[in-house]
Amino acid sequence: MANGARSERLDAGMGPARPHAFFVSLVIIFALVLIFTKPSKEIGVQVAATAMTVLLVMAGRQCCYLLCELQRLRVKSASGMLNAAVECFRLPRTSWLVIVTCFVLSFLTVHEHPNELLDTLKRQGHVHFLVAFVTMLCVWRRTQFGWTLATTSSGPAPGDGLAYSVFFTYYRPLSLTLQERMTQYEQDNDVVLAVKKLIVLMPRSCYIEPELGVGGDEDIEVANHMDELKISRAGTRERKYTNTVYKIRNGDDRPYYCVAEGTSQLLTLNDMRECGELTVEQERAQMSKFCDKLRDLVNTNAACRSRILLVEYDDMSEDGRPVPVSSILRNVIRKELGLT
Question: pTM higher than 0.70, yes or no?
Answer without folding.
Answer: no
